[in-house]
Amino acid sequence: MSHELILTGGRVIDPSQSLDAVTEVGFAKGKVSGIGTNLKRDPQTKIQDVKGFIVTPGLIDLHTHVYWGGTSLGVDPDFYARKSSVTTSVDTGSAGPGNFPGFAKHVIAPSRQRIYAYLHISHAGIYGFSRDVHVGESEDMRLMDPRGAVKVAAEYPDEIIGIKVRVGRHASGDQGIAPLDVALDAANEAGIPLMAHIDEPPPTYEDVLAKLRPGDVLTHAFRPFPNAPATAQGTIKPAVLAARKRGVLFDIGHGMGSFAFKTARAMLANGFEPDTISSDVHALCIDGPAHDLVTTLSKFLCLGMDLNAIIRSATETPARAIRRHDLGTLKVGAAGDASLIRIDDGDFDYVDVTGEHLAGKKRISAHGMVIRGEWWAIGLSQMQTDAGRKAYELAVAHGWNAHSYAAKMAAQALAAGEAEEHAFWEIVEANLKPRVISN
Ligand SMILES: [Zn+2]
Q1: Residue 148 CB neighbours (<10 A)
Q2: In angstroms, what is the span from residue 62 Cα to ligand 1's centroid?
Q3: Is the omega angle on the peptide bond into residue 434 within 30 degrees of 0, that is, cis?
Q4: What rounded mean pLDDT belongs to the chain?
Q5: Are the beta carbons of 21 and 277 closer than 8 angstroms?
């Protein structure tokens, strides 16, 4: 087998193969073509030196909102891929049967990042979610569209991997748990999994869990009181343990209101790790508190979760949740996706949705990707000019999130010889303009 691309010198962590070693990964024809030391080189093989970095199977963020432009909460998927080395975003309910074709044609198809979707049971998905307008799409039962959902799921089998529903005081209001029953009916009819969102009661955490089937996902699983999975005494609610035993998956879905350090500490102290760690990135949390997948993973690293388990929760397990067994692994023949990350030492300030701060000594940072066998560079590894590096570090030190990304892009342009140094801040500005989502 000849390899078109070889990543060499990196520490490869692939929990699907119980692998954690410095070795090489080869790619050809859009797939993983080899793994091991001293892969055979051809004259045309592209060698990417990734010494000092960690290579993982392509990171999968199981809870995102990437219907940019079609919903006010959407973020641009390729922007998001570069921000967090996420090769696959799973959009959870941004679109419903009424507006999914636009998502498929205008966002999923042209994006470089892979995108899969849980289709919302509500006709127009999450349509009323911004700083100024908040309408729970599950509040109005007239919008429930089980027939449309089953039809559209059948029309888009390559994109739609499940059904999404949001229930809770904010999302379903007076309708309580009723939308979940409708969604479950549709998921059964379509033969696909369900992801359920919970917020404040009603319904209770236990009420929602009782409805979920093996393989279904409960998102916002480590949310703060009220409706947390842990009791005030720090024990795990019995219904949570029973649901895990049954095969229900517990997903983080950080977002702006759904992850608390206090809950996570209680759960981890009881040996209950999340099945999947996801960001719930959307327009109102991409500049904090969630930021992105690598920041959410970093929080778990600082809470003491094992690095290999963290990587499993963003590769192998979410791949299983969406039933895409060619993703989330670097086995030969799997999809040619990999992510390049690094563990940075230093002093890092993390915050949860309750405003609690955590002083961390570690950070997982994003540095590049391979998608469909093609190398996609981002970040510091490409920053070879002093001016770019200094400006980027300055932006990070000041906590200018959008600016730090823009500075990174500018530094790359300088490093690639596409721009002169004096143009640095002009490039930063240019990168900021179309990208500013909130601030
Ligand atoms: Zn969400």
Answers
A1: 18
A2: 10
A3: no
A4: 92
A5: no
Q: In angstroms, rounded to a whole number, what is the distance separating the alpha carbons of residues 101 and 412?
A: 35
The two three-digit tokens of residue 59, written as one number = 């990171």
Task: Please state, in angstroms and rounded to a whole number, the distance separating the CA atoms of residues 242 and 123.
Answer: 33
Q: Tell me, in angstroms, the distance from the centre of ligand 1 to residue 253's CA.
A: 7
Of residues 207, 125, 213, 116, the one with CA closest to residue 165: 125
Give the predicted TM-score (pTM) of the model: 0.88
93 CA to middle of ligand 1, Å? 7
Strand partners, 230: 236
Do the Cβ atoms of 51 and 109 come closer than 8 Å? no
DSSP-assigned letters across all residues of 367-414: EEEEETTEEEE-SGGG---HHHHHHHHHHHHTT-HHHHHHHHHHHHHH
Amino acid (1-letter code) at residue 318: P
C-alpha neighbours within 13 Å on the C-beta side of residue 91: 33
CA of 54 to the centre of ligand 1 (A): 28
CA–centroid distance, residue 37 to ligand 1 (Å): 41
Q: Say how many Å lie between the first and final Cα of the chain, rounded.
A: 49
Phi/psi for 201 (5° steps) reads -75, 160
Could you give the CA distance from residue 133 to residue 68 in angstroms, rounded to a whole number? 17
What Å distances lie between residue 322 and 6, 20, 167, 365, CA to CA?
28, 25, 21, 25
| Per-residue CA distances from 75 to 70, 131, 286, 351 (Å) | 10, 15, 8, 21
pLDDT for 420 equals 66
Residue 362, classed as helix, strand or coil, is: strand
- 166: tokens are 């949001």
Residues 6 or more apart from 205 whose CB is under 8 A from it?
198, 227, 228, 229, 237, 239, 240
The answer to whether 236 and 267 are in contact (CB under 8 A) is yes
Distance CA 179, CA 126 (A): 14
CA–CA dist 368, 158 (Å, integer)? 26
Residues 103-143 have pLDDT tens digits of 999 999 999 999 999 999 999 999 999 889 989 999 999 99
Strands 86-92 and 114-120: parallel
Q: Which two three-digit tokens encode residue 280? A: 């719930």
Q: Which residue type sits at 356?
A: E
**Cα 335 to averaged position of ligand 1 atoms, centre (Å):** 26
Residues 6+ apart with CB under 8 A from 272: 229, 236, 240, 241, 244, 250
